[in-house]
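## Example pair
The file below holds two records. Each record gives the amino-acid sequence first, followed by its structure token line.
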Amino acid sequence: MDTRIKVPQDLKAKVMLWTDVSYHDMEEIDKMQSIPDLESVLCSVFGVDLPEPKRGVLLELYVQTVLFCRERSFKKEQTSALLSIIKSIHEANVETPLNNIEQSFKYCKELLLCHSVRRPPFSINLFSPEEVTTILNYIFNSYVRHYKLYKYIFTPQVILDLSLTYSGIPNQEEAAMEDSSALDAENVKETEGEAAPKTDSSLQTQEAFIVEPEEDTPGSKSGLKALIEKEVREQMMLVSGQLDQQMKEIADQHNRALESPQLNHKAKK
């Protein structure tokens, strides 16, 4: 299984007339009136083969798009193109578990422009400016507002596994070997002391030699560890603050766009 995470990237928009839904498919869709029948034919047209709840959520998205087109009295070619646009936006959203709302929103606008400006072969005049505005409002209300929910359902969960390595501190095996060597040296000195008794001054020197490392070494290790942990906490707080600020700015941008969604329909010369 490939565990690599795909990095969000910009996608190139193209004309999607009859790309996923053919004229014959639209005739079959128009015959269906009930929701279960629509789900059945759309599942066959798009080849939806997903486990629940993904299957139900995706079919609901397509069914609501068809009902929206019927309310607006769209033609067969308009409904086919809009279904392909919705499908492409959804695939762009769920291709990565990372935040790619800016790329998806940009891709959505470019797709609509490709179907609202006559500039063959790069774009066609399939939707009028008023219809584009209506479609954009529909996409915002039905999909963009639930952007995180779709990503949560259709993308795998990403877990950050953070491990720290303290430089300058021996690992457990090296520390155990050092402790064993220290104990062997201590036993040898005690044996020599029993064979040839030493003066009080030599005993005090030996005690100082043994006790002093036990007091200083743990203190230095704990101090170094505390210092490293402090630096890591500060860096994590800094990164977290930056991410929160970026998410707040993105949310503000899209809230403003939701209030007054407008598209530039001018064709490039």
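Second record, same layout:
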Amino acid sequence: MLKGADESVMEQEDSASQHGEMTSWDINDIKLPQHVSQTDWFQEWPDSYVKHIYSSEDKNAQRHHSSWAMRNTNNHNSRILKKSCLGVVVCGNDCSTLDGRKIYLRPAICDKARQKQQRRCCPNCNGPLRLLSCRGHGGYPVTNFWRHEGQFIFFQSKGAHDHPRPETKLEAEARRSIQKAKTAFSPSSLRLKRIQEIEVTLAIGQ
């Protein structure tokens, strides 16, 4: 049977009403939508002023994962997790790798570790490193908010990142592993190991 005009209009109004409910909420609302017909696919690089509703079973949402370098910040509402962007660490010489890529390192989360990181040399050209801070939310860092309610995890981002994307956590771990391997097999490292072996041998012979 064909649907009547009135029935079609009512369905369109219901759909529009549900869509409005899904997009009109704010993370600080007392009540958040619970009649969610479809949850969002997880977004690894959320940017600008966006909102997402994830399933409470989404593993990435459970971990409050983001490929931006975000750290927990104080929030007056214990039900809402607040994270702020740290920006990206770049080469002070603005160098490029052989394949033309720029150096966009992931900032360390801890303040002391981040300061120590900036005293290191660029892994590509040995030049100085500098932190390019995020100022995409009215001069302040972009902020992400997470809130668990019932069967859903609500996400809201405020601000647009004004800097390049940093390397992901996996890329950072892979780069550090390669650097450790290179250091372990460098001539100076091998020479030091040989000296230590000789010292041990002499000590045993005494």
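Notes on the second record: The beta strands are 51-55, 70-73, 81-85, 88-91, 104-105, 129-132, 143-149, 152-158. The longest strand covers residues 143-149.
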